[in-house]
Amino acid sequence: MKRYAYITGMALFMSFILALPVLAEEQEKQADLNLTEDAKASILLERDTGDVLYEKNAHEKLPPASMTKVMTLLLIMEAIAEDKLSLDEQITISERASSMGGSQVFLAEGEQMSVDDLIKAIAIASGNDASVALAERIAGSEEAFVQLMNDKVKELTLENTNFVNSSGLPAENHYTTAYDMAMIAKELLKYEKVINYTSIYEDYLRKGEENEFWLVNTNKLVRFYPYVDGLKTGYTSEAKFCLTATAKKDDMRVVSVVMGADSAKNRNAMTMNLIDYAFNHYESEKLYDPGEKVASLRHIQSEKWNYDIKTSEQISLLHKKGEKEAGEVETAVKIKEDIQLPIHKGEQVGTMTVKKGDNLQIESPLIVEENVEIASYFTLFKRSLQNIAKYNQ
């Protein structure tokens, strides 16, 4: 009888030991479910692939507050990349821009400020006045700029976002979702220079002048939490505390969105939970750098004979740590057929696809980083003579 009891006890003990890994895994899963317990909505994704690593009510429409400025910054960075705006250009502040309420850097009507400083004011201090000033410069009016914002929403095929202003001040019918905000941030991060602004913790406007203004980043994590280098906080009484954040470790960049937290402290804590989860459980394998040449464009009517085709963003594969998927990685470049000239700098001319086995992993735009102009008559004539000479050799 005692021997039977001993064997039974040992069996129960061994069952318990064998069950420990399963219990630990279940506890980890349960902990994962509570990464953003106190948020109305949240999401975590890897930037290069867009793979969603965690989500909670990610498609619920909510007010974004100043996270709206992620889209504003996207259109600003696009304009700079397309040479429609330069960092040293001086912008004259309008009466409308100077009169904006909420968070501001107290721009005066008629004051002139560089694009570079206005971007700092948006990215660091969430200046509503600076947002309107650049919106007016790019589109002529804030209303026209808002139309560009919503056009971009459609271009990104986002279905649950509508903007009414460029700043995020409370307004009827101004909403987005955690998922849509993450995808806007993913697009913004193609322009890596934006991190030069969003990662600044403190700076000054009008430094050394009588009306010098101290900028302090509303996103405290850029100073106090490793790897975080952006992007944008938000708060209104309706939206509560929100944060679209990004962090990079080694070659892996993630984007997190937390919406509707009850305090800045909880918002930051939930953001840290998401980022820790990403870096603890996943790793990425970089395939191409942004701006890496992958092909050449030749067009019989172009001014130059060869133009470099480059990646528009970093291209990577994502996998769980210690669990690389089977299958060879295959990349392919497809150039658009019947390309019409001229082609503007930054315009998409093709697509890079990445497959692993039979599974399509990534489709990424390929671009030209210079204008492709229509050849002059002189260039075409000279090219014809060169072809005739080759033919007669």
From TrEMBL:
Q: Which reaction does it catalyse?
A: Preferential cleavage: (Ac)2-L-Lys-D-Ala-|-D-Ala. Also transpeptidation of peptidyl-alanyl moieties that are N-acyl substituents of D-alanine
Gene Ontology biological process terms, A to Z? cell wall organization; peptidoglycan biosynthetic process; proteolysis; regulation of cell shape
Q: Which SMART domains match?
A: PBP5_C
Give start-end of the signal peptide.
Answer: 1-24
Q: In which pathway does it act?
A: Cell wall biogenesis; peptidoglycan biosynthesis
**In the record, what terms sit under GO molecular function?**
serine-type D-Ala-D-Ala carboxypeptidase activity
What transmembrane ranges does the database entry give? none
Q: Which SUPFAM superfamilies match?
A: beta-lactamase/transpeptidase-like, Penicillin-binding protein associated domain
Q: What does this protein do?
A: Removes C-terminal D-alanyl residues from sugar-peptide cell wall precursors.
Q: What is this protein called?
A: serine-type D-Ala-D-Ala carboxypeptidase
